[in-house]
Design brief:
This protein starts with a helix and ends with a strand. The relative contact order is 0.13. It is mostly helical. The radius of gyration is 23 Å and the shape is globular.
């Protein structure tokens, strides 16, 4: 069983690297053609950024593989023997949190490079070293506190029931729902400063827009995201009465009122179609399958690893193999998500105007330096949103770039 898992994980890692190499080659070929959607300078810069990120991703994948080998070969045994605690639930907290912290520390240099070298070079990073250290410390403390509580409860469940995998799934799923409800509040408490939108005209337009879809929220807020990053974004956070609209200040700086309303119309499309609940249900289904698998691993696997079937060990194995199982299941989630995005675009076009949504998406591509083309395999496994050119096509906008291919000329957009 152990050899099968090792072989499967190796294939998974090699396949991920293969997809990254295919994506890099695709972008390098595409960038030598004339620009699509962006002007030539923006197009080349977006290509360089995409390739740089993918190269960094390959390094991260390779480190992940080395860590996987280490943990299965000797790391789990070493960590399990490090804490001589008789209380199995408490020991699980110490062992699993140590596993998480070690992994986080090892990946920290890549994260630092991404932010202070790569993102800095392309003009995204606005965070200071002090801000980064503060954010990292707060994130770590939240992980230790909330993670410790979750691990302790799951360990108690595992020690008290043979159907621990079912009750643990229900508990974790409930935690995910609660986090979705209170995410905007938690983020505002520890990371971003949220302030009510003080543009009366825009507030009125947003209220009218929300009324059309029956969306009620606890307010429209502006996040000071620009203190960390230059990218544009917005989100509807929370569930039920906790729903709120959060706009990044960078978005307000770059989009006109009409463009912003079209983007919010897209998000309201997700609400009116029940996509938030569909996504939670899909995530729950994926999580359930994972718990079924890990709740029924053969005892022979633990014997081969030379470790006991303790709560701490089971949880570490779960986290080690979760990325593999997620990778296998994510294409299904991606297909559903991309379909939902197309439908939300239709709503955004109806509520905010097709031309304004197209204009807003174009600005998002430009400001976020998103390369507009990707290898089909990369799209299949990683894209939760359809490529922007496909979104334009669904909206009835053609990109004319020569007779045969969108790579053959600079691409103006105009509606059919």
């Amino acid at each position: 069983m152990l050899m099968f898992i090792m072989a499967l994980y190796t294939v998974y890692v090699l396949f991920r690297i293969y997809i990254s190499i295919m994506q890099i080659g695709f972008i390098n070929r595409a960038k030598r053609q004339q620009a699509v959607l962006l002007n030539t300078a923006e197009y080349l810069k977006a290509a360089e950024y995409a390739v740089s990120k993918e190269k960094l991703s390959i390094i991260g994948t390779f480190i992940e593989f080395l860590l996987f080998i280490f943990w299965l070969d000797a790391g789990i045994v070493w960590l399990d023997n490090l804490f001589l605690i008789h209380d199995e639930a408490l020991k699980a907290v110490m062992v699993v949190l140590s596993f998480i912290v070690i992994g986080g520390v090892i990946h920290l240099p890549l994260e630092w490079y991404q932010k202070f070298v790569l993102d800095e070079r392309f003009g995204f990073n606005r965070s200071s070293y002090g801000q980064y250290i503060k954010d990292t410390v707060i994130s770590t403390l939240l992980t230790l506190v909330l993670g410790g509580i979750i691990i302790y409860v799951v360990a108690l469940i595992m020690l008290s029931s043979e159907l621990w995998w079912l009750w643990s799934f229900l508990f974790i799923f409930a935690v995910i729902v609660l986090l979705n409800m209170f995410f905007p509040t938690l983020r505002a408490m520890f990371f971003d400063t949220l302030s009510p939108l003080d543009d009366d005209e825009l507030n009125t337009k947003i209220a009218i827009l929300m009324e059309k879809t029956g969306f009620t929220s606890s307010g429209v807020f502006v996040s000071d995201a620009s203190k960390r990053d230059a990218r544009l974004n917005a989100y509807f956070g929370g569930l039920g009465k906790t729903k709120r609209v959060v706009l990044f200040d960078t978005l307000l700086q770059k989009l006109s009122h009409n463009e912003l309303l079209a983007v919010l119309g897209h998000e309201l499309g997700h609400f009116s179609h029940g996509d938030i609940y569909k996504n939670i249900a899909a995530m729950g289904g994926m999580l359930f399958v994972m718990f079924v698998i890990f709740g029924n691993l053969p005892e022979s696997l633990y014997l081969e690893l030379g470790i006991s079937q303790s709560p701490a060990v089971v949880m570490i194995l779960f986290m080690l193999l979760m990325s593999l199982l997620s990778f296998i299941m994510m294409p299904i989630m991606g297909i559903l998500s991309r379909h939902n995005e197309f439908e939300a675009d239709k709503t955004g076009a109806e509520l905010g105007g097709e031309e304004h949504l197209v204009s807003a998406l174009s600005k998002l591509v430009t400001e976020n330096k998103s390369f507009p083309l990707s290898h089909p395999l990369y799209i299949f496994f990683y894209y939760t949103h359809p490529p922007v050119l496909e979104r334009f096509k669904e909206l009835g906008v053609d990109i004319y770039c020569g007779e045969h291919s969108a790579l053959e000329g600079e691409c103006p957009t105009h509606a059919r």
